[in-house]
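User: Continuing from earlier, I have the next pair ready.

Assistant: Great, send them over.

User: Here they are, in order.

Assistant: Folding the first of the pair now:
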Amino acid sequence: MPKTSPAAGRTLPGPMRALRHRNFRSYFAGQAISILGTWIQQVALSWLIYRLTGSVALLGVATFAALLPILFLGPLAGAWIDRHDKRRLLILVQGLLALQAAALAVLTALEAIGPTLIVTMSALLGVLNAFDTPLRQSQIGQFVGDRADLPNALALNAMAFNAGRFIGPPVAGLLLGLSSEAACFALNALSFSALAIGVWRVRVPTSARASGSTAAVFREGLRYVLDEYPVRTLILILAVVNLTASSYAVLLPVFAKDVFAGDARMLGWLWGAAGAGAVLGTVFLATRRRVLSLVKAVVGAGAVCAFGLLAFAYNRELALALAAMALIGFGISVGNVSVNTLVQSNAPDHLRGRVVSFVSATRFGFDAIGGLVAGLLAARIGVQAAMLAEGVVLALFAAWCVSRYSRLRAEVARQQDEILQAPHGTGKAG
């Protein structure tokens, strides 16, 4: 990994240490603004769907359409981007994402939007995100230029994401009350320019590109994921947590309107509570200095999410519901970010784009499947029973994870030793 010099004389607290790197600061500022716009659009889109159709099943279908492309295209996109200039590609993708959001704003303002167009636009967003997510994630290590600061950079990146999740939904609720969904979509379109400018200002050497066909590059990455016990186990945990816990996002509009008899502002508060928990989760992770300690965090995160789901399902007290949402947000954040950090920190540099794409594909792809299942299940047995079922399944899986903790920790430690002993951290682990 190429080294970049931190700003001369800049000292920052340990939890913020990655920001001493100028390139990462430039990326981080643009990322924070872009993420805020993304969350405003997501809340507005959910409210638009339920306002127009009243269908919880369509909420699940739209989420499924937005996230499923990442499951199938993500790994192939990771192989493809490893063969190209990632920085230029990231700037290009921001422009395409801005066009998608602008088109959604225009269609909504003209009242030309309907279920078919919503699902189509969601699917287009999913295709673009299949490239955007691994492009963003795989370059963070190069932006900090120091493997020792990579875990902190990933935690801060997740903190920006979760701060957007905390701030964005209440802002979206306020904007929806004052204006319209179209205004939220237009604001998101503008936000992508912040990240494009931030990445344009980054100055790093051009990263080495993978050689060979996209298929051969893909197979190399897949072999690594399947052969390494800690990688495949961590990805399995990631899949189950997002299949169950992350499906709360699809059900929240129904809880806000039908269970708590609220409006878009109620949806914003519930979503914001989950965001607040997620922010606390990333603050917790930013203070961790030993990567190995994250194995316990991954195992514990599933149990925290299961407790939150079970506590929220049949509760009608708003204060307790907000606390349960915060627990779910905390657990999902800690689990997702810890898995990403463990896998990225131990991955050989030349495989990072592909490894990140498998992690992203699992996270968002199983989120999509879980959202679809939750929406269809809620339409059949009710929204509260559906969330209770998700919590029970996750609680059983969390118990299985506890039984695998010792072996997983030992294998992660072994992988860490091997990657550190390889020249410049570029050799293959295992």
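And the other member of the pair:
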Amino acid sequence: MGIDFYLRHGLTVLLMLVSATAHAQLPAALEEALMRARIPASATALLVVDAQDAKAVPRLQHRSEAPMQAASVMKLFTTYAALDLLGPAYSWSTPVYIDGLVRDGTLTGNLYIQGQGDPQLVMERLWLLLRRVQSLGIARISGDIVLDNSAFFVPDQDPAAFDGEPLRPYNARPEALLINYKSIVMTFTPEPSGRVARVQYDPPLWGVQTQDTVALSGGACNDYRAGLKADFSDPLRIRFGGALPASCGEKIWPIAYADPNSYAPRAVQGLWRSMGAGLDGNARWGTVPPKLLETRPLLEWRSPPLAEVVREINKYSNNVMAQQVFLTLGRDGGKGTARAEASRAVLQKWWETRVGSEDAPLVDNGAGLSRSERVSARALGHLLQHAYRSPLMPELIASLPISGIDGTLLRSKARAAGSAHLKTGSILGVNAIAGYVDASSGKRYAVVALVNHGNASAARPVLDALVDWAAQDQ
């Protein structure tokens, strides 16, 4: 070949040689898994490095500097930064105010519930909060229950915008007074008669008509949700046109409410009334009057500590909880209104001052439910090494799913079951893991794998092969 060929095609040839060299460095089991999944090595970024030694030469690195989508693995940045900046014992307060007198069990005036970002105000905890209100002598409210959502600024967004699945609870938008992830949990329980299944809706939503029973049918319990032929098109009415196979037994189906902006008022009013309490007005959105903010609240409801919240976020990859924590980081000392821009700035500064790596992650909403977020395997490795040397290491590791044991790794097929604590992430075209693997030599490795490809959904055996290879270092 003449020199003109290399002048014209030199860059392509060079890239092919670099790619071939990098590909040749991969362990044989990993190459085989990639081949079976029909994923090219050039669509992956991999890193295996000693978790404790920041100066250690990586045992394996492949395209570790390439910026990649990491899906829910991005939650590692949000949760570790929160543990560091807020402390593992941090908790959220939800103060409750009244603007009138209480006589003979009746509050003459309004009751105000001020949200401040609690990520875990689920139905059970909301029930306890309202029970506390009743225990203070309020059995009836002559005015309204006013819900204050002003601590977070979150622009309106279409819940179907990300992936066309508006009824998936993971697409719920964060808000300062987030109640039960804006979801309805429907429980289908077959009656002993074998004719119908009872349907329970939690929480009860005020003003929403529901169907109490569905018919039972024969056959296997395959896609029972499709067989129920649910109609959620009208937010004021939930209906089923199909049946539940009796072979299914009891089934639980959570969905995001079709009208998320009215969810919290409906949930609070429905639960308050279901507890036997009276309300002359309605539950509605509003703000606590400034004069009341200068007084002592009737009560302050506290969330679980951050360490417990982080465990829920990482074990089960809860997107809306992660975004609640992310926005909390941008709320200056728990005052004012939190905005995503401020939270991004806080994470950027934290990364620069604490981790110090030049390849800072590009963060959008802190949950990984985004197409714009980017991070390199090297940056994730730096984060994992920094966390391992931190006093917060036990809290972070305890929050990660354990391979083959729990969380999002419950069904992992890695032979090294129980030896890996890994955050997982997957969206269309993306599959990823990052965390720690205990090896047979006694070493603990920081392990990162990022796959960005159309066949990423088939990459689970690839990730398992990497975990098994990292665990066998003798």
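Worth noting for the second one:
The longest strand covers residues 430-438. The first helix runs from residue 3 to 24.
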